[in-house]
């Protein structure tokens, strides 16, 4: 898997309206989005010393984190994800999980994991043990995604970020989440080897700078 470039920008509500109109004119909505958006729920894992959190805050050049994620309250399709960052470039590995397997992980019943046919699940198992990883925080948010084929570009706008430390209720639609601080809208742009000029122009905003915003770190702060 190739590494991808990634930009993050904190934007405001007016920026969101402007970008939505621009992107509709030049890019395609993600085919999985209903009415242009979907809901994401993620469960993040970390060590007792908060290794992933501290490396993110400190800007460590080589780092990774594990999370489990599903969309639109649909627990029939759940992903284990490992996200790596090296020299500012990103790489993500994905493996499917069932709701039963996720519940087993939440209950610390891991005996099935080393027998998984998926290498990522086995790696996650070894790091659950060796790094003593455990569930730390739930993060919910709404995403508006756009795609542009040249450059394999993906542009997303995330908002309504909410969080909960009640990790045992990750699979429950009744899990109560709270706003993760002041409202934030996050623009993310990801691409492979080049970012087409048409997308560069579409996302250009006056006075907006690259951000190191982390939904995981925000969730830990307010969860």
TrEMBL record:
Gene3D superfamilies: VTC, catalytic tunnel domain. GO terms for biological process: polyphosphate biosynthetic process. This is Molecular chaperone. InterPro entries: VTC_domain, VTC_sf. Residues 3-220 form the VTC domain.
């Amino acid at each position: 898997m190739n590494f991808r470039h990634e930009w993050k920008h904190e934007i405001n509500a007016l920026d969101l309206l402007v970008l939505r109109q621009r992107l509709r004119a030049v890019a395609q909505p993600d085919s999985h989005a209903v009415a242009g958006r979907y809901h994401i729920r993620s469960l993040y894992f970390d060590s007792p010393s908060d290794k992933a959190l501290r490396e993110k805050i400190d800007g460590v050049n080589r780092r990774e984190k594990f999370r489990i994620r599903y969309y639109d309250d649909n627990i029939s399709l759940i992903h284990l994800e490992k996200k790596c960052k090296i020299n500012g470039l990103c790489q993500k590995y994905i493996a499917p999980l069932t709701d039963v397997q996720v519940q087993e992980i939440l209950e610390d019943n891991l005996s099935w994991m080393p027998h998984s046919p998926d290498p990522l699940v086995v790696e996650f198992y070894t790091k659950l043990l060796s790094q003593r990883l455990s569930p730390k925080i739930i993060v919910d948010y709404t995403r508006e995604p756009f795609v542009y084929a040249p450059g394999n570009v993906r542009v997303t706008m995330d908002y309504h970020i909410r969080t909960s430390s009640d990790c045992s209720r990750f699979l429950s639609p009744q899990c109560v989440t709270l706003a993760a601080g002041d409202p934030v809208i996050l623009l993310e742009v990801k691409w492979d080897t080049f970012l087409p000029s048409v997308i560069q122009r579409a996302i250009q905003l006056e006075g907006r700078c690259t951000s190191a915003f982390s939904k995981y770190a925000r969730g830990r702060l307010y969860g």
